[in-house]
Amino acid sequence: MRPRQKLADTVLLTGATGFLGGRVLAELLATTSAKIICPVRATSQQMAADRGVATLLKALDRTPTPEESARTHWVRGDIEEHRLGFSDQTWLDICQQTTRILHCAASVRFDLPLEEAHHINVTGTEHLLDLGRVASKLNNFECFHHVSTAYSAGTASGLVDADYLPGDAAGNFRNTYERTKARAERMLRDQTDIEVAIYRPSIVGGTTDDGQTDNWNVLYAPMRMIANNQLPVMPSSGLALVDSVGVDYVARGIVELMGRDRGDYVGHHLTAGPDAFTVQQFVDLVRRICVRHDKKPSDTQLIGPARWAALTTGVSLAARAPKSAPKVRRWGRLGERGLRGFAPYAPYTGVSTRFDNRRERLMLSAAEIEMPAAIEYLETIATFAISTDFGRAPKHALDVADRHGAPIGVVA
Ligand SMILES: NC(=O)c1ccc[n+]([C@@H]2O[C@H](COP(=O)([O-])OP(=O)(O)OC[C@H]3O[C@@H](n4cnc5c(N)ncnc54)[C@H](OP(=O)(O)O)[C@@H]3O)[C@@H](O)[C@H]2O)c1
After folding, report:
1. Site to substitute for ligand 1 among 17, 127, 214, most atoms within 8 A of C-beta
2. 108: CA distance to ligand 1 center in Å?
3. How far apart are the CA of 105 and the centre of ligand 1, in A?
4. 101 to each of 16, 65, 162, 196, 310, how far by Cα in Å?
5. How far apart are CA 407 and CA 259, in angstroms?
6. Residues lining ligand 1, judged by CB closer than 6 Å?
7. Backbone phi and psi for residue 203, each to the nearest 5 degrees, phi listed first
8. Taking burial as the number of CB atoms within 10 A of a residue's CB, which of 166, 252, 264, 341 is the most buried?
């Protein structure tokens, strides 16, 4: 068992039922003595407690010990509501106890209307900030730890540090997710009432040792399309960067950094940084792993913006071809469906941002928290995804020989 940090606070953890939050919860239980209060969406306190039991079981992948159960408190709460929808008494009790907030809840959808994304990601964060402000008057409140995203940097190119934030113009961001995560950060950075630390993971994928995940978003969407022979073309120069890190690395990193003296730094990157792989490496490696698993992947060609625009126009015209041309119509309609599925991820095939992680890497490697080489990591998560048919086949279908076979390596 790893030694426990001194962090003996009462941590209010939001988003514990989510992909990253569950890992963070398990890490807090394993490496700190903190009491953890988790607000969860539920229609009754009983349902909140039931969600808590199921979440803890899943996060630990075993029955919790009595001590773990006793340290974890589940309360009905919705970050979108004023005071999280708590009764006056619950609000006061929680404010009196909470010495750290770890705000992990968010909507991670790329395609929500701005107002909706703002309500969850910005107004929700304001409600937590209110809690922090009251807590700081009632006890020795330490810090508001906020989980953001490296992509709060928007469409910036080149090397950016973890405190870089572009202005709030729609054109600076790929979608409402990035924009509202940046707004929440700005709001927290601009206030001076309580101390804030911001964690910015890049794309969070499966575990670093065996690639396990039950979250099949972001990186896994184009991966699945390639594996299912549904992605003949992708708009990219091939040199665009894909920065991805393991969920275990991020959870361990956040909890480790929470207990550290951060000096004057507010933002922390949990990213692959200079080690990020390219879109071309991603496509080549995914295709090779498919072939190893006797799947026939797409022969995905990377094309420039002009060809991509011509293709999308051609598909749209074909989908509206007259009924007398049924083959053209069918091709167009299939094409449109594929483009719709790929649309939220298309802007990420042109990323040229490098997320500087030199300081965080040094701090975390001192605690033996490290990411494997990015291409090795990609091989691990792609092998898990493809060998389990993206979660449809049971876990034991993972072909262990694959993971220990000859490395595929850099194939760009
Ligand atoms: N996944 C990534 O690649 C990635 C990358 C960078 C940063 N992040 C950041 O990491 C954090 C966690 O992301 P994730 O991937 O773990 O997302 P997730 O699996 O979708 O989890 C989101 C969590 O937020 C909770 N939540 C959403 N709206 C809520 C509300 N109104 N009230 C209370 N809880 C609410 C959800 O609760 P329910 O169970 O009730 O839905 C769930 O626990 C987010 O802040 C995200 O921006 C994620």
Report:
1. 17
2. 6
3. 4
4. 12, 24, 20, 10, 49
5. 37
6. 14-15, 17-21, 41, 78-80, 104-108, 120, 124, 147, 149, 181, 201, 203-204, 215, 218
7. -75, 125
8. 252
Candidate from 204, 245, 255 with most ligand 1 atoms within 8 A of CB, to mutate: 204
**Calpha distance 18→29 (Å, rounded):** 16
Digits of tens for pLDDT over the chain (412 positions)?
555 565 668 999 999 999 999 999 999 999 999 999 999 999 999 999 999 999 999 999 999 999 999 999 999 999 999 999 999 999 999 999 999 999 999 999 999 999 999 999 999 999 999 999 999 999 999 999 999 999 999 999 999 999 999 999 999 999 999 999 999 999 999 999 999 999 999 999 999 999 999 999 999 999 999 999 999 999 999 999 999 999 999 999 999 999 887 777 899 999 999 999 999 999 999 999 999 999 999 999 999 989 999 999 999 999 999 999 999 999 999 888 888 888 899 999 999 999 999 999 999 999 999 999 999 999 999 999 999 999 998 655 454 444 444 333 322 2
Distance CA 216, CA 391 (A): 8
Dump strand ranges (E) for 243-322. Answer: 244-246, 267-270, 277-278, 301-303
- Which residue has its alpha carbon closest to ligand 1 atom 8? 149
Find all residues with CB under 8 Å of 160, minimum gap 6, and list them: 153, 353, 354, 355, 356
Q: Give all domains of the chain, ordered by start, each with its CATH number.
A: 10-201 (3.40.50.720), 207-243+274-352+373-412 (no CATH)
pTM: 0.93
Identify whether the C-beta of residue 397 lies closer than 8 Å to the C-beta of residue 223: no
Q: What is the whole-number distance in angstroms between the Cα of residue 107 and the centre of ligand 1?
A: 6
Ligand 1 centroid – CA 109 distance (Å): 9
Taking the CA of residue 150 as reference, the ligand 1 atom at the shortest distance is: 6
How far is it, in rounded angstroms, from Cα 89 to Cα 287? Answer: 56
Q: Which atom of ligand 1 is nearest to the CA of 81?
A: 31
Tell how far the Cα of 385 is from the centroid of ligand 1, in angstroms.
21
